[in-house]
Amino acid sequence: MTRQRENYREDVAGRANVEDTPELLAYYDELERFDAGALWTVANKIEPWEPQSTSKPVIWRYADLRAHVLRSVDLVTPEKAGRRVIYLNNPGRQDVSAAVGWLYSGLQVMHPGEVASAHRHSATAVRFIIEGRGAYTVVDGHKMTLGANDFVLTPNGTWHEHGVAEDGSPCIWQDGLDIPLMNALEANFYEVHPDLNQAVAHPVDDMTKTWGNAGLLPSGGDWDKAYSPMYKYEWAPTYDALQKYAAVTDGSPFDGVMMEYVNPHSGGPVTQTMGASMQMLRPGERTKAHRHTGSYLYHVTKGAGHSIINGTRFDWKEHDIFCVPSWAWHEHANASDREDACLFCLNDLPVMRSLGIYREQAFGENGGHQPV
Amino acid sequence: MTRQRENYREDVAGRANVEDTPELLAYYDELERFDAGALWTVANKIEPWEPQSTSKPVIWRYADLRAHVLRSVDLVTPEKAGRRVIYLNNPGRQDVSAAVGWLYSGLQVMHPGEVASAHRHSATAVRFIIEGRGAYTVVDGHKMTLGANDFVLTPNGTWHEHGVAEDGSPCIWQDGLDIPLMNALEANFYEVHPDLNQAVAHPVDDMTKTWGNAGLLPSGGDWDKAYSPMYKYEWAPTYDALQKYAAVTDGSPFDGVMMEYVNPHSGGPVTQTMGASMQMLRPGERTKAHRHTGSYLYHVTKGAGHSIINGTRFDWKEHDIFCVPSWAWHEHANASDREDACLFCLNDLPVMRSLGIYREQAFGENGGHQPV
Amino acid sequence: MTRQRENYREDVAGRANVEDTPELLAYYDELERFDAGALWTVANKIEPWEPQSTSKPVIWRYADLRAHVLRSVDLVTPEKAGRRVIYLNNPGRQDVSAAVGWLYSGLQVMHPGEVASAHRHSATAVRFIIEGRGAYTVVDGHKMTLGANDFVLTPNGTWHEHGVAEDGSPCIWQDGLDIPLMNALEANFYEVHPDLNQAVAHPVDDMTKTWGNAGLLPSGGDWDKAYSPMYKYEWAPTYDALQKYAAVTDGSPFDGVMMEYVNPHSGGPVTQTMGASMQMLRPGERTKAHRHTGSYLYHVTKGAGHSIINGTRFDWKEHDIFCVPSWAWHEHANASDREDACLFCLNDLPVMRSLGIYREQAFGENGGHQPV
Amino acid sequence: MTRQRENYREDVAGRANVEDTPELLAYYDELERFDAGALWTVANKIEPWEPQSTSKPVIWRYADLRAHVLRSVDLVTPEKAGRRVIYLNNPGRQDVSAAVGWLYSGLQVMHPGEVASAHRHSATAVRFIIEGRGAYTVVDGHKMTLGANDFVLTPNGTWHEHGVAEDGSPCIWQDGLDIPLMNALEANFYEVHPDLNQAVAHPVDDMTKTWGNAGLLPSGGDWDKAYSPMYKYEWAPTYDALQKYAAVTDGSPFDGVMMEYVNPHSGGPVTQTMGASMQMLRPGERTKAHRHTGSYLYHVTKGAGHSIINGTRFDWKEHDIFCVPSWAWHEHANASDREDACLFCLNDLPVMRSLGIYREQAFGENGGHQPV
């Protein structure tokens, strides 16, 4: 039956601008019978002038979430829940359970002596430790111990399991995965380890001790995977690197002193789908606004400050998490004139780059600052 | 307010299986206030055991669509419509106007003397000629003439425009683009050429004459783009290549004699997001079933036969188009014992490979053939 | 005992300029005892201002050599000689038996029904057919048939053997190898095939039929070697490619219409140590002079003309061979106003590029032409 | 005139074995007139069964050379000598002034306040500090300060100059360059800086502070050179890396705990022509023998021990230098049961790998140890 349509008309040369007529409406109905449609009825919708992110800028405050995370321990057992995780549910992305864009993230808690069952999946994960002692992760038989602000990779297809040592303390960490992307690309597989747990087959922390040395790789060390063999990236050397780099760079006008975590075997991103960076806003630093393609999820690692995202100010402090959707204007400011502030960022930059669609723009007006 | 939830429970070790309780329902409501949720309520949904494509296997018969395509000439002007295109609207992907997965496709018609306005966008396009004389495409100032079963690339970011020569005949072609993917990745930009048309700045067909020679490249020929400089791939040498290759290969059990179109500068795919292949089913050939990640859109270039996709038989002949969704079982058969049949295929294999998520499986039972 | 020395003195700031004294001469003798020396006595010698090739420009005329090559058949048996080859012995490189730089070349003859014993070595070879019918080469079990102006690769480490079919005619070809380079780099291994001959394990000419198609590669065709899988490059498609390219290019001022033979799997050179190109001098074409690092050995494939190399004119015609040493000025001219002339070139450009030492300079004076 | 020849005859199937006859001798003379020869007279010479290095295994003891190096200060001025360097002159390579293979090396001394004139050349250099305070090197405007056992790169084509700070002490270092290779490849250019000295245009040590951080690179840090941007590699983090790696590896049976210095931007070698490694022989460690292509020059960085090279024992201690020619058997032993010993190694492995000619063999007999 014929009905009025939303044809997304625009009165611009080179754009579709067709008015409904009875004849056309009948034609559209006819096309539907053959699983087809007239492009000009949707052309302007599917070819927007610039990206329209469905994600909203959101801040998740650790002060809000921490108690709820801890409470999950009382509410569900690991056996029933699989993992006790509170996930970040962007109001614009609830259909795919994403924190921003195609990135999933959640806060997980585990008590001393607990260990999750081992599994593997097409999704790639990063686990960033927030608090607690004794956390560890086993990746394909390699056990990595984890302290606050360390993170570990569990890439696409690797068997992995998380635990906390018997003599540790309750641990909370942030998980970041590309689960929504894997689902969107219809390439997500999931498998539970046949033994539910893996044997540790190598010396503890061997991958980072082997591959995590500046300007040095193991001689004859073959590595044929596309992800980094340096499974764990620790906070102390990261912060040290930022200090060293800060001493010799002017920094970026948009990001302060920023470094990307890389695969030491290739110099490329840590995984094929998710990248990570750490940036330092120096005392008193306030950056200029820019925007770029790609979805960004920030974790405040140190200090306090605020970010302005598409004209809205978000104040943050340690362990708060906030997101910047694709093509959203953003700028950052350190609240302190004495202390630096550090932001960890998980993003899909490797996807943008591999597919040739990274794009960046500086905010040109108002001295580079958004009106708030 | 509390309500019952679909928690996607599974009674399998390592999977979430939590029953709603009043306490939990209150907890879920509380989490929503902070843009958060409990992972165990969605875990099994977002971590499926294997990919669940939302696309349906569909065949679009040229006999059905051709008249409708031609009729569009009478119904809309190029000025109003932008382009006169009937797009393939997969019943499972109408929200994103995709033919399959994240691939858009449509049939476009143009009359002699017509020329579309030039534009560029983040989406990459392939234009495969079905019928007519005199079609041409201009890509960044390079004019490529096009005959039946030739195809031309208009990659991400290139200015391009299509036309038909004054002394040509009405032309119909199939467009294939990654528009849905670019939108999903929130990286789609669109721009109309300031002059609405480009000047032709190089000898006609120069890119294919320069780069389209087996085992030979122009000396000192620099090329710093990630897509192929051989903008046009012609049918005659393609069919000749299939014949030559067929003479020395057993072929693939799943695909017969299959070749991939490549970027001669790198040996890689023609673009970063879309790949293309041509395969020949030899007289009487019937392949075995397999499945793999990635979305495939086939165009019957020559001959007739059928494909079985997830247990349903689709009979096809010249210029029919059909799709195979990600992880769908599929096998092909040539209907003729005397003539070969050829299938052009547009796919997102470069995305699967760049992101490390290509996966393939042979159908193990029943001699490799699906029960229909 | 002290003696006068050649200290290569130069009176230029930053260069060594030390006069012998009795004290210094005694010091030098003392250093010799410890296998040491004073750098300033050799510094200017080992750090020249620019490359000083020891190779001489030479032309080898086919009219001179052909009879001698044929005569070898009467003088030695294949069993005793291994292969009946007259090699090109550059007057400046007789110590390493090179035609130019580190490239060896020779003319080989073989009679119908003859076949050389199979062997392999670290040296990479190219075999360019000059005359005769029925020549073939077997490379790692792949038999390639060869006609005039075709060439075949027998890369580093591949088992290979040459033969002429029973129903062929006496064949003469040019061999080009990097034997001198492999010896200089002290990496040359040689092995005779345990059976003296290999079995042909694949359809004849399969590698070229599989890999030698413009813009198309076999689907799923893995190739993990660093050399080209397209073992044979034929003359007819090469000449056709030159014609096509010539129609759309201005050509190089130094080389006319020039194409490089490439590995279709990577777009890179045919082997890691030797490259090959074919260039066409159009009717009446006279190029300008330039020079570059790398050693070049030309084989006149078609036509007649002359080249001026470091100020000396060398007239050439079909099947003559001439060399251009590293950093020698050179320019070419076609003798005909009606016919094109073609030059095949074997070179060590891949070495220059892999090691980052390729360098090029145009001749700036006299309209780009050397005074003769 | 005819004369007897050395034809390198071998009585092995597939090898040349032709006896001189008057007729052949006349033929050879005739060929010489055309700058040609008969391959079978040299075939076995130029195609050896395995590499025959002309380099001799040599040890240069620091105790022997140090006084001579220091004495050069009294004997020549920097202005006259260019640089005061005692070079290592392998008895088998005196024609090319090489320490081993195509590698040059020398010991250079400089007094506080001295600075060499800036120059650049096609040769790539490594400067390894032996003793003294205040050494520095400027590379393309980047000043790097250097302590004992640090080394700095001055790659192909970079402007560079060495100096010692006014408040430093006399410094001695080892230079390692590929000068002989650049000359052999006829690609060596040399240029004196127009101002004789460069301006320091960046913060001191910026390249190492920017690029020398484990698993982290500067965000947006573009680097388009083929050599490492981490110009300086320091001893302290190197030794620390060896300790960390030693804790989790069994090590190599041939080399103990060995790491390669890499370009952090690519994971590849520090330069395109020379590689470097540091290896640790653990207390009491004695390795097994192997051989490989490539020329190796060792500098004892720490401890004492011995190496057996082609059956000859060489005892070494701190700052001794010794060489292992291509394809020479070698094994190492630490003399101490309490202290580790460390060997820095400069080699041409990147050349071997880029050209596809690296090859390795374990010594199979006698438990892996050479008879001495």
Automatic annotation (TrEMBL), chains A, B, C, D:
CDD domains: cupin_GDO-like_C (cd06992), cupin_GDO-like_N (cd02216). SUPFAM superfamilies: RmlC-like cupins. Residues 107-173, 278-345 form the Cupin type-2 domain. The keyword ATP-binding does not apply. The keyword Methyltransferase does not apply. GO terms for molecular function: dioxygenase activity. It comes from the Bacteria. Keywords: Dioxygenase, Oxidoreductase. InterPro entries: Cupin_2 (IPR013096), GDO-like (IPR047183), RmlC-like_jellyroll (IPR014710), RmlC_Cupin_sf (IPR011051). This is NADPH dehydrogenase.
